[in-house]
Design brief:
The structure holds 2 protein chains of 2 kinds. Chain A is α+β, with helices and mostly antiparallel strands. Chain A folds into 5 domains: about 5-140, HPT domain (Four Helix Bundle (Hemerythrin (Met), subunit A)), CATH 1.20.120; about 145-270, Alpha-Beta Plaits (2-Layer Sandwich); about 305-360; about 365-545, 2-Layer Sandwich (Heat Shock Protein 90), CATH 3.30.565.10; about 550-680, OB fold (Dihydrolipoamide Acetyltransferase, E2P). Chain A has 24 helices and 22 strands. In chain A, helix 3 (about 60-75) runs parallel beside helix 5 (about 115-140). Residues about 130-145, about 255-295 and about 500-510 of chain A have low confidence and may be disordered. Chain B contains 3 helices and 11 strands. Helices cover about 15% and strands about 50% of the residues of chain B. In chain B, strands 8-1-2-11-10-9 form a 6-stranded mixed beta sheet, with no helix packed on it. A 5-stranded mixed beta sheet of chain B has the order 3-6-7-5-4. Chain B starts with a strand and ends with a helix. Chain B is mainly beta. Chain B has a single domain (about 5-145), classed as OB fold (Dihydrolipoamide Acetyltransferase, E2P), CATH 2.40.50. The chains are: A alpha+beta, B mainly beta. Chain B: It comes from Ammoniphilus resinae. Chain B: This is Purine-binding chemotaxis protein CheW.
């Protein structure tokens, strides 16, 4: 079908719009009076409707159409946002997400939307009947006297302070003439000339919308100024094609009433909604016009298909391989000019490598932005009162990692909400604020990216963890008393461990933190946990910046060359045969006072040549997986090299202890050893 | 229009076989193969095919035919099917033929020791007999998994 070529675009844009609706709904939940959010949601729903109808996804079009109807009522002021409206719109978004997912999986996007549609219609009916009358009667009177401009907390503060310091706050309703051709230009002129005499703190519709001519005939401005009403009126009417300007001084007392009502509404809502200051700052808010000064920020970017970047990366990888080869040749030939050129090329490709790797970096925001919604839903479900703070959402990660890191983070967050943060009553008893906080923070450090999930909950109960671990046979009774707190906390990551006494379906489904740990280690990272009883728990994930080019140690085993990632090597060492000891039918060595088991790579990989048996000394790579160590016995070390990680292809998808392959300077393929699978 | 198939003809031992041209990416000489441990016996390892790591399969071993030494004539046919890519070692590959569809007959149960499921048909052309292979089955992944479980310990 010819529609297919548009399908990708449709899916991509639908996802963007749904995300945007989600974001704005969350803001709206905390600021029920914010028209900007309603407008944004309306616009996204409208676009979705159009797209869905064009593509022939009728259920989707139907649902968005009903959503639009309800939003339209809210937008035109005939209905106020209430918790039940929020809930149903959230539900709709979930359904829409399900549809988009189904379509992307080659489904038809069909869904039974009747329940949601009915819910929306009920709201529409119940409300329009009672509010219509008020709307009608209001229309005949002076519009400005009846309408109330909704101010949020910030704007109220600004207003209050300015009035106290002698400014007057004026509300100006400007109407352009019917035959006005350049509405946007006129609006801009009004805005501009007013801005020169005072500070405009609010603009309805927003400045962006004014610029895009998204208003009918009139628009509202609130300005703080020393000028009088008459002076301002003159200024506005000076602009041509303006029909009228109505001006009223804002009396804070009458506004206060409005505000009180809002506060009341908020306190009725979900536990989460009552505090907004912290959470709001971190939610992506577009079209926010708290100060009416926001300008379009258009940075110069182009969109590039991610596949093209992959191709570029592959081509560059080949260049890296050739570079290795040239390097080798230059060293053999010992030709001055050749060596110089190769050296220069090395520097340039090094820079190039940095740039290309940087291009593949995506802000973690892409993963983070779905969490506020998840946390909201979960906290409601579990009747916990908490906010999610996000820091460092702009931190960048390789896109392969971005794709993989979502699930582990979901798990950690669920864990914190379920087990970490206490119920409001419990928190009160402990003398903590009722509202729990979960901090999700990403930051760069050295060659790594760290992601922290921190809650201010009850912390980890050492005794409880130990009891469980002994029950499950993870540690013995004697061992348990000598463990440090840190070691006890690390038990949480052991397989088959779950401390929640009653199983909830949020976390603790048997698959536990051990899955998180494994996943992150597969990505070449590490995860650790720290906790202060009564104060909270912090999970710290460490990830490499990129996965495509890694530093590794090349080693010889038999006639083959293998690459071992430097990230898993602690150090290299040579031992005499006599230093090998036997313990539990296993060869071990004493490495700096620690007993380290030996793993013979030739035996693991079934390389038959009997090399090691005759040698007097053995070469050992001390490798680690978390806290565990092992000695990887090889024939000899070749040296350190940057290698390009390549997959073995789908045909050889799952080879034991091999995580991939790379191409060496001589054009041969070398396998990359997966140390994680060698340590048990 | 398509009452003919373009077939690449290759030889295993003394018998000629065929694979449809549209599945063949290229034909290569056999160069250094890196062994991959703990894989089925017929997987000889991987090669560097212009920057792509490609698995190499000994087709004779895969089909259960007797072994023969590699010679100067030995080639690797790179086959791509459903996104799976692999190279097959054959004793020689030297011909491309247009085969009329009506000359293709269904395969007998077993043909010269090759199991039925690997056979797609037999093409009879003048003096020649071409065995067309079903590479979907030859590249069967599920069987791969089972085999690697058994052989890979």
């Amino acid at each position: 079908m010819e529609m297919n070529q548009y399908l990708d675009m449709f899916l991509e844009e639908s996802k963007e719009h749904l995300q945007s609706i989600n974001d704005h709904l969350l803001v709206l939940e905390n600021k029920p009076s914010s028209m900007d959010e309603v407008n944004e949601i309306f616009r996204s729903a409208h676009t979705l409707k159009g797209m869905a109808a064009t593509m022939g996804f009728e259920d989707m079009a139907k649902l968005t159409h009903e959503m639009e109807n309800v939003l339209d009522q809210v937008k035109s002021g005939k209905m106020a946002i209430r918790p039940d409206i929020m809930d149903i719109i959230f539900q709709c978004v979930d359904i829409l997400e399900g549809m988009v997912y189904s379509i992307s999986e080659n489904g038809d996007g069909r869904f039974d939307v009747s329940e949601a549609v009915n819910g929306l219609r009920r709201i529409l009916k119940g409300e329009t009947a009672s509010t219509q009358a008020i709307g009608d009667s209001a229309q005949n009177e002076d519009p400005i006297a009846q309408e109330e401009i909704p101010f949020d907390e910030y704007e109220m503060t600004v207003l209050k302070q300015s009035i106290e310091s002698g400014y007057s706050a004026l509300w100006i309703k400007t109407t352009v003439r019917n035959d006005c051709v350049l509405k946007a230009a006129r609006a801009y002129m009004v805005y501009n000339s007013l801005e020169s005499v005072g500070e405009i703190i609010k603009c309805i519709p927003s400045v962006e919308e004014l610029e895009e001519e998204k208003f009918d005939k009139s628009f509202d401005l609130v300005i703080l100024t020393h000028k009088s009403e008459e002076e301002l009126k003159k200024i506005v009417l000076n602009v041509s094609e303006i029909d009228s300007a109505e001006i009223r001084t804002i009396d804070l007392k009458s506004e206060a009433k409005e505000n009180k009502k809002e506060e009341h509404e908020q306190s009725l809502q979900s536990p989460k909604a009552s505090d907004q200051s912290s959470a709001n700052g971190n939610l992506p808010v577009t079209g926010d016009s708290t100060n009416g000064q926001k300008k379009h920020t258009t940075s110069k970017t182009i969109r590039v298909d991610i596949e093209r970047l992959d191709v570029l990366m592959n081509l560059f990888s080949e260049l890296v391989i050739d570079r290795g080869r040239l390097d080798q040749l230059a060293k053999e030939l010992l030709n001055g000019p050749l060596s110089e050129t190769v050296e220069h090329m090395n520097r340039i490709t090094g820079d190039l490598q940095n740039i290309i790797l940087n291009m593949r970096m995506i802000p973690v925001e892409q993963v983070f932005n779905r969490f506020p919604r998840m946390v909201r839903d979960l906290s409601r479900e579990l009747q916990k009162n908490l906010t999610l703070q996000i820091e460092g959402a702009e931190t960048e990660l390789d896109r392969t990692l971005i794709d993989e890191i979502g699930d582990p983070l979901v798990h950690l967050l669920r864990n914190s909400i379920d087990h970490g943060v206490e119920s409001p009553e419990e928190r009160k008893k402990a003398g903590k604020p009722e509202m729990g906080t979960i901090l999700l923070k990403a930051f760069h450090s050295g060659n790594h990216v760290f992601i922290e999930v921190k809650d201010d909950g009850r912390g980890i109960n050492r005794a409880k963890v130990l009891k469980k671990a002994i029950e499950k046979g993870i540690v013995s009774e004697q061992q348990s008393s000598s463990l440090t707190d840190k070691q006890v906390y690390d038990l949480l990551f052991s397989a088959g461990f779950s401390t929640a006494e009653k199983l909830s379906d949020i976390s603790g489904r048997g698959v536990g933190l051990d899955v998180v740990k494994t996943k992150i280690e597969v990505l070449g990272g590490a995860v650790s946990v720290d906790s202060v009883p009564g104060k909270g728990t912090t999970f710290l994930i460490q990830l490499p910046l990129t996965l495509s080019i890694i530093s590794s140690m090349l080693v010889d085993v038999g006639s083959e060359i293998f690459a071992v990632p430097l990230s898993s090597i602690i150090e290299t060492a040579v031992f005499d045969k006599g230093q090998i000891m036997r313990a539990h039918q296993q060869d071990v060595i004493d490495f700096r006072g620690k007993v380290v088991p030996l793993v013979y790579l030739d035996r693991i990989f079934q390389i038959s040549e009997e090399f090691t048996a005759h040698k007097e000394q053995i070469s050992v790579l001390i490798i680690r997986k978390g806290d565990k160590m092992a000695g990887l016995v090889v024939d000899s070390f070749i040296g350190q090299q940057e290698i390009v990680l390549k997959s073995l292809g789908r045909y050889l998808g799952n080879v034991f202890a091999v995580s991939g392959a790379t191409i060496l300077g001589n054009g041969k393929v070398a396998l990359i050893v997966d140390c994680n699978q060698l340590i048990k | 229009m398509s009452d003919e198939k373009k077939i690449i003809v290759f030889r295993l031992l003394d018998q000629e076989y065929g694979v449809e041209l549209k599945y063949v990416k290229s034909i290569e000489r056999l160069e250094s193969v890196t062994k991959v441990p703990r894989t089925p016996k017929f997987v000889k390892g991987v090669i560097n095919l212009r920057g792509i790591v490609t698995p190499i399969i000994d087709l004779k071993e895969r089909l259960g035919l007797p072994q023969a030494e590699l010679t100067e004539e030995s080639r690797v046919i790179i086959v791509e099917l459903d996104g799976l890519e692999a190279g097959f070692i054959v004793d020689s590959a030297n011909d491309v033929l247009d085969i009329p569809l009506q000359s293709i007959e269904p395969a007998p149960n077993v043909f010269q020791g090759v199991r039925f499921e690997f056979l797609e048909g037999i093409a009879k052309l003048d003096q020649r007999l071409l065995v067309l292979l079903n590479f979907n089955k030859v590249l069967n992944l599920e069987e791969m998994d089972q085999l690697s479980k058994v052989e890979g310990l």
